[in-house]
Amino acid sequence: MLGKLIKSNFKNDFSHMVTFFLIMVLAVFMLHTGLAILVGYSDLHENKKEEYNFADLMIHSILRSEDNQAVEEIIRNADYIESYEKSYPIYKEFTKTKDEADEDSKDMFDMSTSGLLILPYGEWGDIEAPHFVELADEEYENPIYVSYYYNENLMKAKLGDSVDMKVGDKYYTFQVAGFFESLLSSEMGVTYVSPSLYNEWKAEADNRQMKNNDEEAEDLEQPLYTRTLFAMKIKDGENSTVASGQLTQAFSEHEIKAFAQSVDNTINDLTYMQNMIAALIAAFALIITGIAMIIIYFRISNSIEQNIVNIGALKALGYTSKQIRMAMVLEFLITTTVAFFTGVIGSYWILPVIEKYLRSFSGVQWIVPFDLVSFLCTLVLIVGTVVLVSTASTRMISKLDPVIALRFGINTHSFKKNHAPIDKTPGPLTWVMALKSVLGNTKQNLILFVVMLSIGIVTTFAMFLTHNCVVDASHLYRMLNLVADDVNFSFYKYDGQDAEIMKLPEVNSVFWYEVAEMTSEGNSIYTYITDDWTQIPEMNLYEGRAPKYDNEVAIGGNLAETLNKKIGDEMKVSYGQKEYTYIVTGYEQSSGNYGMDVSMTTEGAEHLEYEPAKTRLSVIVKNHSLENSLKVVDDVQDMYGDKLVGYGNIIEVINNGEEGVIAVAAIMVVAMVCISVLIIILSLNLLVKTVIIKKQREIGIKKALGFSSDQLRTELIFSMLPQIIVGAVVGSVIGLLISNRILATLLSTMGIMRSNMEVFPWMGLVAVIFAVIVSYIMIWLMSGRIKRISAYSLITE
């Protein structure tokens, strides 16, 4: 009996349920995908660390033999270190020239160059041993084994490919024999070659070292400096970040320039992009779900009004209110359940594609499993919400008396006010009827308003990202960096080049800054140093001021939270055996070390006996123009020739869209616009169908009175446009107010605490125009079914 009722409901509502089904598939697909990425990467690296015994801490030291022994002694005596191993890598710069680039070019962006730490294949211990995901079966003449991280960011090769690389001043052809996963060693650039090639390079390095230090070396068989890689496991219950700070502090106290790197900081580095993408996808899914819930209420309430006679007849035939309500709820539940499984299947189809893209950020392979947490969370949020909303929406059926229902309900004799009476309201007839429809349909108005409000927020945020991250990506670049230059130059030696470059007509300012690794109260920090921060045009401060005096520093937001430091507080900074207490003058932001950074003046660094080299100069060109930056690069190359090590034209790179974060922002913009269009289409399709069915008797009568289909379609458009426009306008205003806040939240794991990128009213205006035009077109197309309605077809015998 209940089955027949459900079947009848599906037959009558088939077109509506198809549209509702598509909306729910989209919501499930996005929510499950976002949650799966968030959950999948939340403990992926930690699990791999435990499974493959990856290191908790690593130290890459280039020290005298006695200092390396001191480092090992400190590690051995640290009560928080459980075990350690050491290896002796060779440092080599691997360069892969981009297509059509000049091999002799000094443009650092013309080539993919990475400094790699080379170790012999097969000679590793138990800690931080590579976990090979792909390994060739055949033997190669010159094999190379590279981490996923460096393959995606440097070689971009497949297993078995031959890759031509410049290593130092020689050229080699390598065969890619394997890809491995690791954490700390991946980010450090550990790469494996054949033992014979390693020994050859090792002998070259030792001979070079002995030759350079022949006068100082006491034993010519032992190089003066050795490069050592320490891999450590900490004891249970210890924190790797805290341990890295304690080790670095201990080295500083012994005047040893060595720094410990923690696996937790590395995992943060490898997962920030995944977290940002997952959060954005999940947020979109929640918006879509909210829209769907409102549409359910609208659809059910209209269905009750439309079928009130049938409901009365069913009650007269013996159906209970509970059965009728159950049939309606099950109709949406069955549709949502099918949509749920369809969306989940689609999610698992797309996740491997996303995973391959994310390897360049994550450094490890994520084998996408069936994730019960994401499955259940999506099930509860989507299906559970649909059941609750549909159950609540059918409550009025219980209060409906069969006699009143059979007499077309109380609304048949409605005493509602006649808004905009046709005989008294001036204006074209079509407009007057549209006005009557607007004033007499509160429920429809509210639904349209909320849907377009959501679309307005999303499209405005898309316009915000388009302007600041795609069209003029320099805004995003400046927000991500403490100091944002247009062009930078590296020299072998500082010799007053800044004064000469400043004379160029295209140059607005020239300055230098250096970054040194120091510690602060047990935390490893990046320390930015320059002569006078007030002379740097664009320092990324979001509160307070830059340091002026030798006892002042500005600190990153995450460091401020970690140390619980406020502006005006004192904090200690250590370098080597020196430690000095500074006053915090402001908060800065930079993605370089996730907000664990400090800036100070050169005079301030003298307290720690740090002497800057000043070999890297930054240039701001006039108007930040590409033309000026290219001219400055040409002039500086002509002026200094071989004295110039290399240059980086940031403006050119930004204009080419080659920066990773900028590329992701462009993808997000496209996705948001496409999703917005899809939401508008599906939502309006369902709403327009419902409105036409609800008013088909009225439409038939109007046609009998002489109204054309086009007039009625125009009336429908005008009756919906006011709500669409108002909703889009309110949504765009909200979008303008919160876009910077949303972006800062998405980038908070990178150390960005506040976004101050440009917000213009035109962004909201474009969003409104976009939403209105798409809505107008969709309503006009979907209202074509009005042509099929006639007065004769509505006559009942």
Short synopsis of the structure:
This protein has 797 residues and is α+β, with helices and mostly antiparallel strands.
Beta-strand fraction estimate: 15-25%
Total helical segments: 26
Structural class: alpha+beta
N-to-C span: 28 Å
Global shape: elongated
- Describe the largest sheet: 7 strands, mixed
Query: Helix content range of the residues, please?
Result: 40-55%
Count the beta strands: 22
Q: Report the radius of gyration as a whole number of Å.
A: 33 Å
Report mean pLDDT, rounded to a whole number.
81
pLDDT < 50 stretches = 215-223, 409-415
Ordered list of secondary-structure elements with their pairings:
Blueprint (H helix, E strand, L loop, with lengths): L1 H11 L1 H29 L1 H8 L5 E8 H13 L3 E7 L2 E8 L13 E10 L10 E5 L7 E5 H8 L6 E6 L2 E12 L2 H5 L1 E4 L1 H18 L12 E10 L5 H14 L6 E3 H44 L1 H9 L4 H42 L9 H22 L1 H4 L3 H5 L22 H11 L2 H30 L2 H7 L6 E5 L5 H6 L4 E6 L1 E7 L2 E8 L10 E4 L7 E5 H7 L6 E6 L2 E11 L8 E5 H5 L9 E6 L4 H15 L3 E6 H7 L3 H35 L1 H9 L4 H38 L14 H22 L15
Parallel strand pairs: 4-9, 6-8, 15-20, 17-19
Antiparallel strand pairs: 1-10, 1-11, 2-10, 3-4, 3-7, 5-8, 6-9, 7-8, 12-21, 12-22, 13-21, 14-15, 16-19, 17-20, 18-19
Helix pairs in contact: 1-11, 2-9, 2-11, 2-12, 2-23, 5-11, 9-11, 9-12, 9-16, 9-23, 11-12, 15-25, 16-23, 16-25, 16-26, 23-26, 25-26
